[in-house]
Write the structure tokens for this entry.
Amino acid sequence: ALEIAERLGSSEYQQRALWGLWLICNTTGDSAGSVRMAEPFGRVTGPGTDDSGPTHDRMLALALHFHGEQARARHHAQRVLDHQSRVNRIAQNSGFQFDQRVAALTVLARTLWIHGHSDQALRHGEMAVTEAVEVGHALSLCYALANGAIPAAFWAGDLATASRYTHLLLKRSTEHSLVFWQAFAEGYELLLTPSEGVFGTGPRRSLASLTNPATSPLLLDTLCTRTIAFSHGRA
């Protein structure tokens, strides 16, 4: 698709193809590839790309976060929040899936925790969820919950909040048939004790019990970070 868009000189579809490749890299755990796909997105100019700055910044923010460049990731996430473009509130109709501010707050929740600011991480995760609810965009809400609010809660050892948000993620992803995010809800339940889980009681299951076909390397990597945090006493 990218090769065809380049051959036709279509800047809009070059960006769409780069976006799709960037998503695949994130989902499969290819952090270097994520950066490699995000960087040229902002260099594509032409009709339909005038308001793509915030999208480029949030792509770089997540890519750099996964790649371990946390300071740069925070910089690009903050640029999205500082941007006053109308794109901040129409991302759900732009072809790039998520509300811009929600996506930026989600990345900040993760990077702030890594930098040792757990209270700020929890607050930014909550802000991402609140803003997603306010704009009424289910996909942005699932993104905020699965990638920001729930991870931050688990990392901080706040199982009550993690459980509440996991239940909300399951509810909204099921209502809107968002199978990819349903897999995240099912995975997060594994980290909750039976008495605090949202799927009933019973013995704790292993990762091998995750049979949702949408279970991705990104989800498995994410679950492992929660397990490591608990084993090292961060909870």
User: Anything to note?
Assistant: The CA atoms of residues 70 and 111 lie 6 Å apart.
